[in-house]
């Protein structure tokens, strides 16, 4: 079931700027309060709230809030846990920026992008959102240092230029054991200085996920709707490899890309042998993919042969390969071992017929948007005997 990451309540006090804080339901000593948002459930007596970053309460009764302490009334606080990080806005919105028990946390950097991909799930906006970096740097300070992985996404994160390096450096300093996975179109790494300066940070576990949609320049450029993008991306990838930054190639499969998957696999092996991970990804029917659905949508069953050939070519040559965003019942069984549960938990869902499937716990499921906009006609519950020959699955190394 998908999870809501925002809620709207009624402000109980007035303030001007967004405030960030780590959620706590346990009152704490005053010196530690400035980093925390206190949760008040029920109608228990109001504790001393001086010094907290903010207060969230589910009580329907007015509370005597100390002037200057941001406070909101929400009907339910059930989606929040101690250790989560939230942002409170004076208009009543509460955004969950980090969930302590989720493996799918990301830092959203910008709405801007220098590509205009036909299936973009986060359509770009030409806005001035450079102010986000202040919130992001504060968020990194509040994230639990034991977090295994963080994504950095957008829009196009490299449009932050030096601010992106500042953000990654802050993660390196405050979250040294947290892997970073940056989703980028790779085009600005065409400038070798950006790749060089990124490598100089010395992050121990950093990977840049870059899409490549064809081995033919005009086909890639058409998908991303930007002339010259193919050449910029390839040079960017070469620069990342040159400076030792780990690279993941991400291939979204749709009607315009499936036909040359085997040729693209060979192109990657021949020209980008330093690639750490190649992912073949199912289409997310949201954003620009909705108006372009007729041009893009293809039942995954139809491209099974091309996908098998591409995976087999790369795997036989020792490259690490995964299949993301697919249901096992529409994927050829010989590549089940490459399938990962990759869809972020807050937008991951299943159909009623999946309840009777013996492979549900291994299956990647659906994007929530797919349940409203369409999915394969071949979805069915699997009844595997669990005996010899069943291939083992490993956790997804990166997220979508």
Write up what this structure looks like.
The chain is α/β, with parallel strands linked by helices and 400 residues long. It folds into 2 domains: 6-98, Glucose Oxidase, domain 1; 106-373, Aldolase class I (TIM Barrel). The chain has 9 helices and 17 strands. It has helices at residues 132-142, 162-174, 192-200, 217-224, 229-242, 261-271, 293-296, 304-316, 368-373; strands at residues 6-8, 10-11, 19-24, 36-40, 54-57, 71-73, 85-88, 93-98, 106-108, 149-153, 179-183, 206-211, 246-252, 277-281, 321-324, 348-349, 366-367. An 8-stranded mixed β-sheet has the order 1-8-7-3-4-5-6-2. Strand 7 and strand 8 form a beta hairpin. The protein starts with 5 loop residues before the first strand and ends in a 27-residue tail after the last helix.
CATH superfamily of the largest domain, please? Answer: Aldolase class I
Number of strands: 17
Please tell me what the overall shape is.
globular
Helicity range: 10-25%
User: SSE order in H/E notation?
Assistant: EEEEEEEEEHEHEHEHHEHEHHEEEH
Q: Span from first to last CA?
A: 16 Å
> Number of folding domains?
2
Rg, rounded, reads 23 Å
* Number of separate helices: 9
CATH topology (fold) name of the largest domain: TIM Barrel
Order of strands in the sheet with most strands: 1-8-7-3-4-5-6-2
Name of the CATH class of the largest domain? Alpha Beta
Mean pLDDT across the residues is 91
Uncertain stretches of 5 or more adjacent residues: 387-397
| Beta-strand residue percentage | 15-25%
How many strands, what sense, and barrel or not for the largest sheet? 8 strands, mixed
Q: Structural class of the secondary structure composition?
A: alpha/beta
Q: What CATH architecture of the largest domain do you see?
A: Alpha-Beta Barrel
């Amino acid at each position: 079931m998908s999870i809501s990451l925002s809620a709207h309540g009624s402000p109980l006090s007035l303030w001007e700027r967004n405030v960030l804080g780590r959620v706590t339901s346990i009152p704490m000593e005053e010196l530690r309060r400035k980093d925390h948002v206190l949760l008040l459930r029920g109608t228990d007596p109001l504790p001393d709230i001086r010094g907290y970053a903010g207060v969230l309460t589910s009580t329907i009764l007015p509370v005597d809030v100390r002037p200057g302490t941001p406070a909101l009334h929400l009907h339910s606080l059930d989606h929040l846990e101690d250790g989560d990080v939230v942002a409170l806005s004076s208009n009543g919105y509460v955004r969950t920026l980090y969930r302590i028990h989720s493996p799918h946390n990301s830092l959203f950097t910008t709405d801007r992008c220098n590509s205009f991909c036909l299936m973009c799930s986060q359509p770009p906006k030409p806005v001035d959102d450079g102010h986000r970096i202040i919130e992001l740097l504060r968020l990194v300070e509040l994230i639990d240092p034991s977090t295994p992985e963080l994504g950095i996404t957008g829009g196009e994160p490299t449009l932050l230029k030096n601010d992106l390096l500042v953000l990654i450096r802050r993660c390196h300093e405050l979250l040294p054991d947290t892997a970073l996975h940056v989703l980028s179109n790779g085009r600005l790494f065409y400038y070798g200085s950006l790749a060089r300066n990124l490598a100089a940070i010395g992050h121990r576990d950093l990977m840049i996920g870059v899409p490549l949609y064809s081995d033919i320049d005009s086909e890639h450029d058409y998908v991303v709707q930007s002339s010259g993008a193919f050449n910029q991306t390839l040079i960017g990838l070469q620069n990342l490899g040159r400076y030792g930054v780990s690279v993941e190639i991400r291939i979204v499969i749709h009607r315009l890309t499936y036909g040359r998957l085997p040729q693209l696999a060979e192109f990657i092996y021949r020209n980008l042998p330093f690639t750490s991970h190649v992912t073949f990804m199912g289409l997310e029917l949201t954003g620009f993919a909705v108006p372009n659905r007729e041009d893009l949508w293809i039942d995954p069953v139809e491209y099974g042969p091309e996908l098998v050939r591409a995976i087999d070519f790369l795997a036989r040559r020792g490259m690490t390969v995964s299949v993301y965003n697919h249901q096992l019942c529409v994927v050829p069984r010989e590549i089940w071992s490459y399938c990962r549960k990759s869809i972020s938990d807050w937008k991951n869902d299943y159909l009623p017929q999946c309840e009777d499937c013996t492979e549900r716990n291994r299956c990647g499921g659906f994007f929530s948007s797919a349940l409203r906009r369409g999915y394969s006609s071949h979805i069915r519950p699997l009844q595997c005997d669990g005996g010899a020959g069943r291939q083992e699955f490993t956790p997804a190394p990166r997220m979508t």
